[in-house]
Amino acid sequence: MIRRPPPPPNAPRRKPKTPGVRPFPTKDEILAFIAASKGKVGKREIARHFVLNPANKMLLKKVLKELEIEGTVDRKRGGLHHAGQLPSVIVADVIAKTRDGDLLAVPAEWDIERGNPPQILLSAPRRGRDAGPVPGLNDRVLVRIEPFDEDDVEDGPDAPSYTGKVIKVLSHQAKRAVGVFRADKGGGGRLIPIDKKAKGQEILIPAGVAAGDAEDGDLIAVEIGRDSRLGLKSGRVRERLGSTKSERAISLIAIHTHEIPNVFPDAALREADMAAEATLAGREDWRAIPLITIDPADARDHDDAVHAERDPPCRDRGCRGLRAARFRARQ
């Protein structure tokens, strides 16, 4: 065994290595770190980044509480985020398609008092073996997002603020079809699609609960389920729409044919319920004028109206004036 020689009697002693102690970060430095972080950020991650000792960790807890009270930091799902910014991974609802065919989504949880929710432009999934999940309209998805670069941000209040990549489709919006119900003698029946593109693609409506109270010849809306053993898709009647010649049915046929979303998420319905009724401020009150529509009884809308009244005295006795007016719908 080799022994080291003892140090000289006058040699200076080595100091034990101690981790470097950094000064406590300012609020601006903490906010900058939170904003730049892409993953989950909490007290532990901040303390590790700034190399804080146990005493400073207690001070950090106090500072973070002050930032929350000031409104500069939000705490969501156990993580801290710069106020006004969304976390890097969120649950979102697909709400629309752009003219280019890209999907737009908004956060599933959003405080309406903060204004309109920011829109997220979902990137198209890859093709081939590495293809990611493909969402559709009204689907709920788990998405990883990043803010748009300042140079790429489009102008306008409704322009997307984030880009997103779908991690997982959490729930699919049940697909619906509209068509004419043809009853079978043994119960149940089939839906004959009104869409010419789906000609020949009938949907089986099993007897019992699935068929509901639909009668032969009714226009119905069906929620499509799984394929049956016969090779036909099966469905459940969700709504009887009445006669195919009714105004409501004609509108729903047009909506379905052009794939216009007409099933709104709960957040949109809550926002609509909170909308205040319009007042007469800044408008003329025409409710006392006896307007008479000149539209036929079967018109889609009754928006052409006239009002006749006696003119002031004139040379020709009994002269009349006809005033044409466009009916102003009460907003």
Molecular structure report:
The protein has 331 residues and is α+β, with helices and mostly antiparallel strands. The chain has four domains: 27-82, Orthogonal Bundle (Arc Repressor Mutant, subunit A); 89-171, Beta Barrel (OB fold (Dihydrolipoamide Acetyltransferase, E2P)); 176-257, OB fold (Dihydrolipoamide Acetyltransferase, E2P); 276-331, no CATH class. 16% of the residues lie in helices and 28% in strands. It has helices at residues 27-36, 43-49, 54-70, 247-257, 266-274; strands at 73-76, 79-82, 89-97, 103-107, 120-122, 140-147, 162-171, 176-183, 189-193, 203-205, 219-227, 233-242, 292-293, 304-310, 320-326. The protein has a five-stranded mixed barrel. A five-stranded mixed β-barrel has the order 8-9-10-12-11. Strands 13-14-15 form a three-stranded antiparallel beta sheet, with no helix packed on it. The longest helix has 17 residues, at 54-70. The chain is elongated, with a radius of gyration of 33 Å. The termini are far apart. The model is unreliable at 319-331 (pLDDT under 50).
